[in-house]
């Protein structure tokens, strides 16, 4: 039995290395583009090969890029309640020992959330707007005039509009746990920066799957889409 497991392990390791060689760039860096790809180029060069890429300056013409500042948020909807995740260490929806630890969710005015971000040492915990299920359209429609309704070249390539559009805001202590999404993602950074760690597809079998998180998110998202569909049918 031991010999069989050794052979199987060696074969999986070889598979991992082969697929990594195909997926990962030779220099270990994610490709950077100076302009957005055409729908055809996106499908041919990136989507079909399951490769990530970065487009520098892709959103520089968005109103949000010029307009979204703490001052603008305070003046435009400082009193609006927003849902904020609060954790002791910045890890929300994360495994803690044998348990899946979900964040505390608090509703507070946007101005109060900005106060916390500007002086984090005066508050216990890490505060992060991270609600999913299309919170931008559902909870923060005031921001929709600053962003397009979709990413046109990707919608054309995939022949569909986005299932969800989310707005996330926090400081450098907020961490997203390692996970696998079931959707194609575009992450647009309007202010600050986001560090992202990517693993090639072959690594999926080597990563502990957070079934609790996946199932809960899928149930919530499917329920959300069901209600959305029913409202449209009426």
Describe the structure.
The structure is a single chain. The protein has 234 residues and is an alpha/beta fold. It has one domain (59-233): Sandwich (Jelly Rolls). The protein is 37% helix and 14% strand. The strands form four sheets. A three-stranded antiparallel sheet has the order 7-3-8, with helices on one face. Strand 5 and strand 6 (99-101) form a beta hairpin. Helix 2 (39-47) packs across helix 7 (152-158). The radius of gyration is 20 Å and the shape is globular.
Number of strand elements = 9
How do the SSEs run, as a string of H and E?
A: HEHEHHEEEEEHEHHEH
Going by CATH, the architecture would be Sandwich
- Quickly give the structural class: alpha/beta
Q: How do the strands of the widest beta sheet line up side by side?
A: 7-3-8
Shape: globular
- For the termini, the CA-CA separation is 61 Å
CATH class: Mainly Beta
Rounded mean pLDDT is 84
What are the low-pLDDT stretches, counting only 5+ consecutive residues below 50? Answer: none
Strand content: 5-15%
Report the CATH topology name: Jelly Rolls
The CATH homologous superfamily name equals Jelly Rolls
* Biggest beta sheet attributes: 3 strands, antiparallel
The tally of domains stands at 1
Helix content: 25-40%
Question: In a few lines, what is going on in this structure?
Answer:
The chain has 234 residues and is of the alpha/beta class. Helices cover 37% and strands 14% of the residues.
């Amino acid at each position: 039995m031991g010999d069989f497991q050794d052979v199987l392990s060696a074969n999986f390791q070889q598979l991992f290395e082969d697929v990594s060689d195909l997926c990962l760039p030779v220099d270990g860096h994610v490709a950077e583009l100076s302009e957005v790809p055409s729908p055809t180029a996106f499908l041919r060069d990136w989507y079909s090969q399951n490769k990530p890429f970065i487009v520098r300056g892709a959103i520089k013409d968005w109103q949000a890029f010029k307009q979204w500042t703490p001052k603008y948020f305070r003046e435009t909807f400082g009193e609006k309640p927003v849902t904020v995740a609060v954790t002791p260490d910045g890890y929300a929806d994360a495994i803690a020992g044998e348990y899946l630890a979900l964040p505390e969710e608090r509703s507070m005015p946007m101005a109060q959330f900005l106060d916390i971000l500007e002086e984090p040492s005066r508050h216990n915990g890490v505060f992060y707007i991270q609600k999913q299920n299309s919170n931008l359209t559902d909870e923060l429609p005031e921001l929709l005039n600053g962003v397009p309704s979709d990413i046109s070249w990707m919608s054309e390539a995939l022949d569909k509009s986005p299932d969800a559009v989310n707005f996330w805001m926090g400081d450098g202590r907020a961490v997203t746990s390692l996970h696998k999404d079931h959707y194609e993602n575009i992450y647009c950074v309007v202010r600050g920066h986001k560090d992202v760690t990517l693993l090639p597809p072959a690594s999926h079998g080597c990563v502990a799957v957070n079934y609790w998180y996946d199932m809960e998110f899928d149930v919530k998202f499917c329920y959300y889409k069901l209600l959305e569909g029913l409202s449209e049918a009426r």
